[in-house]
Amino acid sequence: MLGLALKMLFGDTAKYLMLILGLFFATFLIAQQSSVFCGLMMWTTATLTNVPAPIWVVDEKVEQVNETNPLRDTDVARVRSVDSVEWAMPLYSGIQRVRLQSGSFKIIQLIGIDPTTLAGAPVKMIEGRLEDLRLPNTVIIDDLAVKRLAKVRGQTIKVGDVFEINDIEARVVGICEAMNSFTGGPYVWTTYERALQYTPASRKMLSAVIAAPRAGFTEEQVVEDIRRTTGLKAFVNKSFNSSPHDFGTSTIWWYVKNTGIPISFGTTVIVGFIVGVAISCQTFYAFVLENIKHLGALKAMGASNGKLCLMLIVQAFTVGIVGFGLGLAGTTLFAMGALKNEQPPFYMSWHIPVFALAVILFICSLAALLGIWRVSRFEPAMVFRG
Amino acid sequence: MTSNPDPVHLANHAVRLSGIVKSFGDGNSRLTVLKGIDLDARSGEIMMLVGPSGCGKTTLLSIMAGTLHADQGGVEVFGTRLDKMKSAHVTKFRAQNIGFIFQSFNLIPTINCAENVSVPLLIQGTPARKAEARAKELLAAVGLGDRWHHRPTQLSGGQQQRVAIARALVHEPRLIICDEPTASLDAKNGTMVMELFDTVAKAPGRAVIIVTHDNRIFSHADRIAQMDDGQIVEVHDVDKSRPPELHH
């Protein structure tokens, strides 16, 4: 009977394709938009990924990593004075303008790190040596900057090339891998003191203090110690989790609560759901209505309500799985394009396809229920009445 | 429930209806369609139910088939009291013992003839391959052995009804219920279909009950029950040598 159900489904090509199309669009919109949203949220925490310090100390009013509320230089020493802190280094992080050799300007995310320890330096160098950052007027750029900071569009910048940051020369001594920033500007590393030279002067310039726990202390313990001892706000730097003390988590929630980004993406996801429900339920119901005479005949011939319900469930879930598969394949193609072009941001955790599948199965259940309701109300005797 | 009939009943009565009353609607709009019907159909015969439109033929057929419950009265099919059975058991009984032929054929257009014919076997849980092999045998018996792979829409009305007859017989039911089997057919195809009833459907131990308006086919009946206004007004044997006379 289940084979018969599938033959009935595949036999009605127009409705079958319409059902698949509806569920394809629903899956694609849900998975693609959710992944772009997650990618965008990842980009908001790019500085935390690119400057991999276990603990970040910032001004007590700061809520997210892209917000700058400078500290006093003496705060570095205050953090170092906390017993459970192994080391603490100054960090500069800010958006600056680069003047290219062509005369045009580009925005960059400038990172200034301690020259002695190089704490906060990029994790993976592609070209050049990290230690060369100690040479005068030198910077290390990320792989995005290789294209963005080139003289001419289509060319690349290489080790040894020169550009200007606020009219001060910067010579490239290395290229590293880094995550794209939320603002879209490439990351440029230099020493802390040189970063202050590149930046227009202001009374306080220290963006954050990065630190590490002494052996035997957890990061959470050290964060508590720093908060209690210095009155500054300290965060751990781990992946997104439920902890209020994680800087990445705090940053993502800040963007969720204070920007229209989730509403924009959420609306599209809801539209995907509505499209799925509208097209699939309506088409499936039309399919059942069109076949009601035949289903009624099956009922008269001795097919139980249970068997007919199972047939409808198999039909609904078959189109669901096929539509979901195609939708996910479409999302994968989109992801391949996004990853190749490095935008739009795209991050698909395992939760997203699982969520999309749950939504699609819910839509299919709804469609099947509509059909089951119609079939169960159909008396087998009605089949004799034409 | 007794699904295995008494052999004595098998030999004589296929269907016994006693005091069947059926009404539709509520209150002032309540309409009594069947008004205490008593009727027997014998094994091995073709019985036709005839009468004017709205006299209750189809309702009576539905009650005999177990697809409709009577308000009052007893329905016995090959010794099994359908009116005493639970709905699920009646459904199972239908699947095993009754074959259906509908006026508009009710073949599923998206599957081929062999698959259509195998449906009653699939309902009973027969494996698809075995069911299809049996379906092809039946299609050959109704003269469509070479058309098994065609879809119903590729066949003429007469051929479609022959497929429907094959479907009604594939699981070897003891009762065949037919609702206006020739109404959608021209005279030639109607005759061909009725000849099939005589040669393929009619068998000892099996009853065929046909509701019809088509007086061209009356000569194929063994007995004719004439209905009027929810009652059986006459049941008589058919003299096969001359056309039956009916009281209208």
CATH fold type of chain B: Rossmann fold
Query: How helix-rich are the residues of chain B, as a percent range?
Result: 25-40%
Outline the low-pLDDT stretches of chain A: none
The largest inter-chain interface, given as chain pair and residues per side, is:
A-B, 28 and 33 residues
> What is the first-to-last residue Cα distance of chain A?
24 Å
Radius of gyration of chain A: 29 Å
Q: What is the annotated CATH architecture of chain B?
A: 3-Layer(aba) Sandwich
Assembly type of the chains comes to heterodimer
Number of helices of chain B: 8
The tally of helices of chain A reads 11
| Strand order within the widest beta sheet of chain A | 2-3-8-5-7-6
What would you call the structural class of chain A?
A: alpha+beta
CATH class identity of chain B = Alpha Beta
Task: Indicate the overall shape of chain B.
Answer: globular
Tell me the strand order in the biggest sheet of chain B. 6-7-8-3-9-10
Which series of helices and strands of chain B comes N to C?
HEEEHEEHEHHHHEHEEE
If you average the pLDDT of chain B, what whole number results? 86
The class by helix and strand makeup of chain B works out as: alpha/beta
Mean residue pLDDT of chain A: 91
